[in-house]
Amino acid sequence: MKKINIEYKPLILSALFFLTFGCKKTLDINNDPNNPPIEQASPEVLFPSAVMGTAGSVGGELTILGGIWSQYWTQSNASNQYKTIDTYNLTRVDFNGPYDNLFAGALADYNLTIKLAQAKSDWRYNLMGTVMKAYTYQVLVDLYDQVPYTEAFNGAANLQPKFDDGYSIYVGLLAEIDAALAKDFTSPLTADQAKGDFVFNGDMDLWVQFANTLKLKMYLRMVNTKSAEAQAGIAKLYADGANFLTASAGIEEFEGTPDNSNPFYEYNIRRLNTTTNIRASKTLTTWLEENEDPRTETYFDEESPVAMHQGDFAATAQDQPTYANATVALQKATDPVWFISESESYFMQAEALERYFGGAGAKAKYDAGVTAAFADAAQDGAEFIAAGGAYEYKTGGSFEAKLEQIIVQKWASLPASGHTIEAFFEQERTGYPKTSAVYSTSDAYIPGEWVYAKNGVTANRFPKRLVFPASSRDRNKNTPAEVPIYTKVWWGK
Amino acid sequence: MAQNRTITGTVTDKEDGKPLPGVTVVVKGTKNGTQTGGDGKYALNVPSGSAELIFSYLGYVSQTVPASGNSVNVILQSDSKSLTEVVVTALGISKTKKTIGYSETTVKSEDINKSAPVSMLGGLQGKVAGVTISNTSGSPGGSTKIILRGYTSISGGNQPLYVIDGVPLDNSNIGSDESYDFGNNSNDINPNSIESMSILKGSAATALYGSRGSNGVILITTKKGTAGKMVVDFSHATTITQVASVFKPQSTFGQGWDGTFIESENGNWGPKYDGQMRPWGAVIDNSQLIKPYSFIKDNVRNALTNGTEFNNNISLSGGSEKTTYYFSYGNVFSDGYLPSDNDSYKRNNFTVKAATTIGDFNIDGSVNYVSKTQRFVAQGQSISGIGSSFYEDIIQIPQDIPIKDLRDYKNQFFNVDNYFTPYAENPYYSIYENGSRYRSDRIYGNVNFGYTVNDWLKLQFQQGADVDNAGDKQWHNKNAPSLGSYNDGGNVEGSKRAADVGRVVEESIKTFEYDSKLNAIFKKTFSDFDLDGVVGVNYNDRGSRFLTTQVEDLAIPGFFSLGNSANKPTSTETERHRRLFGAYASATLGYKNNLFLTVAGRNDWSSTLATGNNSYFYPAASLAYVVSEAFDMKSTPISFFKLRASYGETGSDTDPYRIFDVLNATNVALGFGNIRFPVAGVAGYSIANTLNNKDLRPERVKEYEFGGDIRFLSDRIGLDVAYFNRLRVDQILPVPIDPASGYLFQILNFGKVRVRGIEAALNVKPVKTTDFNWDLTYTFSRQRNMVMELPAGLDKVIINNAYDADLVAIKGQPLGVFQAPGPEYSPDGKIVVDATGFPVVAPTNQNYGNIQRDFSMGLTNMFTYKSFSLGFTLDYQKGGVFYSGTADLLNFVGADVKSTFNDRRPFIVPNSVQKITDANGNFIRYEENTTQITEGLVDDYYYPTTNKAMVYSNRILDKTFLKLREASLSYTLPKSIANKIAANRAVLTVFGRNLLTWLPESNRTIDPEVSNQGVDLASEFGEFRTAPPVRFFGASLRVTF
What we know:
The complex is a heterodimer.
Chain A: H1 2-26, H2 43-69, E1 73-75, H3 83-86, H4 96-119, H5 123-144, E2 146-147, E3 164-165, H6 166-181, H7 191-195, H8 204-221, H9 227-239, E4 249-251, H10 263-270, E5 278-280, H11 282-290, H12 295-300, E6 337-340, H13 342-356, H14 362-376, H15 382-385, H16 399-413, H17 421-430, H18 470-473
Chain B: E1 4-13, E2 24-27, E3 33-35, E4 41-47, E5 52-56, E6 63-66, E7 74-76, H1 81-84, E8 86-89, E9 93-96, E10 104-108, H2 109-113, E11 131-135, E12 144-148, E13 161-164, E14 167-168, E15 194-200, H3 203-206, E16 217-222, E17 228-243, E18 277-284, E19 287-292, H4 299-303, E20 307-319, E21 323-335, E22 344-358, E23 361-375, H5 390-395, H6 427-432, E24 435-454, E25 457-476, E26 503-526, E27 529-552, E28 570-591, E29 595-606, E30 615-626, H7 627-630, E31 638-652, E32 663-665, E33 667-669, E34 674-676, E35 685-687, E36 690-691, E37 699-712, E38 717-736, E39 745-768, E40 772-789, E41 796-802, E42 805-810, E43 817-820, E44 831-833, E45 846-850, E46 855-865, E47 868-878, E48 881-884, H8 885-892, E49 912-917, E50 923-928, H9 944-947, E51 956-958, E52 961-972, H10 975-980, E53 985-998, E54 1022-1023, E55 1030-1040
Parallel strand pairs in B: 1-7, 13-16, 36-39, 44-49, 48-54
Antiparallel strand pairs in B: 1-4, 2-3, 2-5, 5-6, 8-9, 10-15, 11-12, 13-14, 15-16, 17-20, 17-55, 18-19, 20-21, 21-22, 22-23, 23-24, 24-25, 25-26, 26-27, 27-28, 28-29, 29-30, 30-31, 31-37, 32-35, 33-34, 37-38, 38-39, 39-40, 40-46, 41-42, 42-43, 43-45, 46-47, 47-52, 48-51, 49-50, 52-53, 53-55
């Protein structure tokens, strides 16, 4: 029996020996074969992803929100999809997608792009990343008033970042842009790198223009509440001879195939069972028709679109027999998403010239804006801005009268821009287009004025922001107390 | 020496008079002995002068008989089962049940197969205390969900480990998702090849499985050959399948919307039924169909058909003293309740087993091959732009339209162009034109080498393997209403139905699992003490590879190939691989055959944890005290009394690849749809949304258990009770974090979940006579679950959600609380409404109950009279709630009974107030609400886009049910008849499964057992437009030759 004992003991002992010393290698199989390690990240793969992330939200869900709240479109009475938007009934559980995707997607990738670029003194990706980060942040600040900035993107080191007020974030972003502009980013991108720059194909001069135009936009946002800072900032831009965008900044590369299309189209047309949710709103169509503006063709594919009154989805067929055939907004899978359009650049310059430089050159910029807007819509605006034309710039009136002309034209230029949310922000900032005291069914209604949505739940108060999302509220105790949707943001008028 | 003589004889069983093979016969006081053969006969050379022979057989009372004459026939009586019952415990080690100090339940082949289920657990519902078995699918071959002792793992690893003849069995369901349920892999096992199943619920019982034992273990022992002449078993069952229960719609209001009859609407929001003849649907060539405007009874049920299921099995077994063999073949064809065989399941199981003994060595092995083909009709939400879903389409048919007539889906009135509504599609289109097919070829088996070293030590080596090569294809046909047709805006509402572009998905699924173990098994007696146990090592290597490729937008309709599109196919690959080393030991020390102490421990080294942080030890100890052996209780009615106590720890290592942070190929989620890289020839990678963790520890379960088993009146009454307290700590979970951190989730160890419960099984035999027996088994279990701790700073963790309803873990509450938007209340409890009269959504989500059952009970009743036996099983599950996506859609289309509130006339929300605020939103006062919900908005009251505050109470429903799970009547044919077909035994059975379902009044929607959210904790969320369950009626014949 002793003898046999000797036979099995070594067996077990050698097995145990194998376990303790042999298993280290055998167990070292935990590197993910499906996804590369984060150490392999480079600006070349991160930056295009992030830009598409910004376009996906701004040009997707947020353009639906902006388009309905800017009263280009309204919810069809025969379907449901956007009723919460069209009744201003958005709660913390709505619009978590753009918040999540912009923070954990686009902004996190810009942040790492910038970090990697700075580490190897690649000031081109540093500028590109910084400008896009600032643009993306500006959208979030304007929507939510406060978001995390100074404590954001620290991963496990800070799971509950504090919220910063919108003005501080603006100041921080402007400083980041200035720092990036101060570097030498003149060495050209390689052909492959340039291909990965969906916005300007590697043209750094255009990135500088984008940076300047974005700065101009952010300073203009500040005119109501930080007027001195706004004026100083814009004065410096002009004093430094800043170039502004002369072409639209954005993405035109959509292939139009599934998973590779304009995000608004992919969301609202390709992936919904009902493609006719978004119908023409009287607010826009009455204005276009009054001015005999041919852009009805561009926006609605019809010379005389049949429109619904804003938010009037509960009307029955007897009340509104025409609603059944209300015109659907025209959308294409290859539509571009602009971040800032060419015409917007001119309109902002016109406003700046009127505000701070006595109006010299403002008309030219306004005319260029209208011309570019018509061109963007594949129409000719020449006769509209000509003397006696419907959109002739009237230089004689008060500053507010001129501002109204500029902002209303900007509003009319944005329905197909892929960032309709800008028209919503500008109305909150300037009050144009004006809000109507009566509903659009009234004879007293003035075409183009914004009406309070028929089934709005906020007691005649227009929406001014989004409430803090559940994805922050439920996970971060630093999320500020809920602010009603009709409370203006920090720069609001 | 004295003369020897040969004594011969037969040993038979007292119960049935059948010969008993394998009975040990020895001459008392010597080692001289033999065993009875397959015919119960023996022959033993006995020295003259030998006084007595001892006949012993496991499970029978040993007999000592005088060795007189040349022939000694003996009748053995089965022992009080409680003393000799042998059960299979961890690592497949057989033990006398009385020696184990934890709860264990064995179910036998007969219980498993009584009603000829196709899956091995299909016949056990309601039969085992503390075991919840749910058929989550209404389609043949769909998944089965098993939970032992409730949920403790928040991350959703709550499924038990399956071990078949000592080898872990793959139970993944990689190809399945919310739309397609191709079943979990444990369903591949042929229940007819199972000898018994041993269910180990607690951690003391499963500690030897270490980091795979935390959810309990189901040990499956398959049939094998026994010495004797060849035995042939044959069985056949023919079963009819039909839908068990469908939703019950309101029967007052018909087609239309906002109170108006609109012939193109998909809702039941029209006027009241008036029985008048009305035209409906599209006008084609100036003609239109007419039908009465009245409710059609059983409309949905009549839209479905009866399916058939055939289940055939044959096995051949036998062998000699040294070598045995077993071969079986099983064949299943099952067609579900949808018309056509596009919901069907075919399975072929082959098993070959052999065992042989050569001196001190024994070798045995088995090889099993399973081939299956399953076809599944997509359930759940339709894939927008691709194609619709049958169950969504069927709900969107107003109840005055005869659904079954639409089956002629190419008819000019029911086709793509002219189907009556542009808001949904003809449900039959998706049955006939879309589909899926899953095919798998799987081989599993093992080889064992045993060496008996001496009379107290045995060495065993086992190598097991389980390899599955599967693939599936899913297709949606392309269709679009033609230009200007009824569904292209030619209807009264001018609405257009979007085109379905069609899609083809091809998936390849490979799984593998190799398991090796080396055990030394010892057993020794020293005077009053018995010592037995095992020392061993285990190496497990398993993984999977999943490749899915798809293309959208077919060029040629009806041709389903990845190349048939202008678009390029996209592909994703997911590989997972993990390894585990284990070393373990267990020993049981018995004292005077009445007190048994077992200690066990296992150390695991896992590849999924960080190096240096991947070695973990799991201890266990249990004590069994057989009071009825320690003390003489013969004068009491107690025939057996045992007490048990145990403590054990088990664990659960994490999934692979959760240690190092990674990038993901960029996919921009849009809400609906995506933008996927590459874009315009540019590749993109993005920081993964989940932050991994180098410091992960395995989840650990610590559990203690007390119990007892007491039987009275010669086991006529038996009660087994267990109390357990299970604490799961260090849960591993992707915890949602603020997106501003740069991530959406972080993998963390955190928190504690405790579940305490009692389980009881009462067995009573009120009548026990030669001709008539009555046997009743009642099971009861109640589990109380509590989340004790969550990650710092988080007050809840979301487990699953849909349409803003969240299933969450909240500290201090049971695991799985439903939270969803609810109305804001004024301080005096009135509902606050907005300017339009609709309730305002409260700033925080409201609780709508939790998933926990109050209790579960089962009752199995069996009458046996001569050759007849009649049995049934009831299963009652009380309490808990679930989310119903079917209810959501039924409310939307106004088919739900609850949508007829106030006869659909305008109403003011009862007990409501308006909150008056100033321009800045500052509160001024509450005023009584006088704003009506107008007729045009009544439907909006039932849908979340307009009334988020109130709709959730109509879709989060009570999940109580009572089911008649099984009923069967068997007749054993008289031997004389059986013999005519050369058979020894023939049994004819008629049976039914899932025959009757009672649901509470508040749930007229769907059976709460079904789910398309997987088979774990997340599935407790409920269902999202899932196929309703199936019921079965059938007859079977079992013959043994």
